[in-house]
């Protein structure tokens, strides 16, 4: 009924928000890594390794420079249920 449709819409919006946050967090990691100079024949390999090793602190630092509010930083850097995030 009406309640079920509203619930499905909410679940759909949450799924979209989580996918968006995950994609944005990945983009932030790439931005953090792009700030490091990689030169030479193995530059791509170095860059890939740095993406894999980028720390949460680095991602947070980039997020804080790009996003206007701490709430947005939290939402993008740590996607997931708010209850789990608070622990």
What this model shows, in words?
- The protein is 78% helix and 0% strand.
- The longest helix has 33 residues, at 2-34.
- The model is unreliable at 79-87 (pLDDT under 50).
- The protein has one domain (2-86).
- It is built from 5 helices and no strands.
- It is mainly alpha-helical.
- The chain has helices spanning 2-34, 43-53, 56-66, 70-77, 82-86.
**How many helical stretches?**
5
Structural category:
mainly alpha
Return the average pLDDT rounded to an integer. 69
Tally of DSSP β-strands: 0
Strand content: under 5%
Uncertain residue segments: 79-87
Percentage of residues in helical conformation = over 70%
Domains (count):
1
Shape: elongated
The main β sheet shows up as: none
- The value of Rg in angstroms is 17 Å
List SSEs in N-to-C order: HHHHH
**End-to-end separation:** 36 Å
Features:
mainly alpha; 87 residues; elongated; 5 helices
Layout of secondary structure:
Blueprint: H1 2-34, H2 43-53, H3 56-66, H4 70-77, H5 82-86
Could you give a quick summary of the protein structure above?
This protein is mainly α and 87 residues long. It is built from 5 helices and no strands.
């Amino acid at each position: 009924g009406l309640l079920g449709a509203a619930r499905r819409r909410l679940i759909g919006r949450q799924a979209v928000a989580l996918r968006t946050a995950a994609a944005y967090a990945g983009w932030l990691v790439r931005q953090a890594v792009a700030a490091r100079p990689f030169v030479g024949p193995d530059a791509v390999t170095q860059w890939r390794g740095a993406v894999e090793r980028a720390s949460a602190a680095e991602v947070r630092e980039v997020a804080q420079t790009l996003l206007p509010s701490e709430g947005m930083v939290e939402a993008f850097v740590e996607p997931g249920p708010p209850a789990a995030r608070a622990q």
